[in-house]
From TrEMBL:
Residues 8-196 form the Ketoreductase domain. SUPFAM superfamilies: NAD(P)-binding Rossmann-fold domains. GO terms for molecular function: 3-oxoacyl-[acyl-carrier-protein] reductase (NADPH) activity. The keyword Phosphoprotein does not apply. It comes from the Bacteria. It comes from Orrella dioscoreae. The keyword Acyltransferase does not apply. This is 3-oxoacyl-[acyl-carrier protein] reductase. Keywords: Oxidoreductase. It is an enzyme of class 1 (oxidoreductase). It holds the Pfam family adh_short_C2.
Amino acid sequence: MSQSLKGKTALVTGGSRGIGRAIAERLAADGATVAITYNASSAGAEEVVATIEKTGGTAFALHADLVDAAAIPALFDALDREFNTRKGSKALDILVNNAGNSGWGGLADATPDAWNTMFAVHARAPFFVVQSALSRLSDGGRIINTSSGLATRPLPAVPIYSMAKAAINNLTHALAMELGPRGITVNAVAPGWTRTDMNAAVRENADMVKAIEADTALGRFGETSDIAAVVAFLASEEGRWVTAQVIEASGGYKL
């Protein structure tokens, strides 16, 4: 990799698996010191850190249950301590709001608790993570939110998830306007069908796989590295003139 992020610091929420893991590994490969958050899988987080360190990168993991808004200030206290120890400063250059939870569940079986949990992780947490990050974010920094193609093409099987991701797109635009005077870019990356454990059941259905691939211009499911590459571009100096954008990284799904 190019080491284009050498000397930079990054926080990737939900970095212990799937797309978040690929993003963390890519940013570390590009030279950033990367903090990841995890909730349930400490073993997964430790594996990500070990993988990054084995290839010469620098990373560490912090626990944070982002369903609980009260966990966010504590997360940043821990982040401050780690960055001060490792870098001599609590400055944060790149924030990736990626943490999520499973979105399956339609109108008929939805509950207020399911709604609250979904919006807590996918919409409320990014808002308050950015709020806590503001005093740490470097001028000229980067905020990158993980959205979804479902934000603009919702599915009836996942209405709450689709709505929460639409909220992320709106937040991205609002933050870009507010933080532009500081040179901070704010963008969202909206994956399409990407190979992760969250859609493993879908990929076990050969007919569904065939239909999805037929509806995708590039004819395949995305890989997590495909999404990480877009994030890496936005995080780099090359992405300096891109802000307030929702970039769909779907391989051309349902054009």
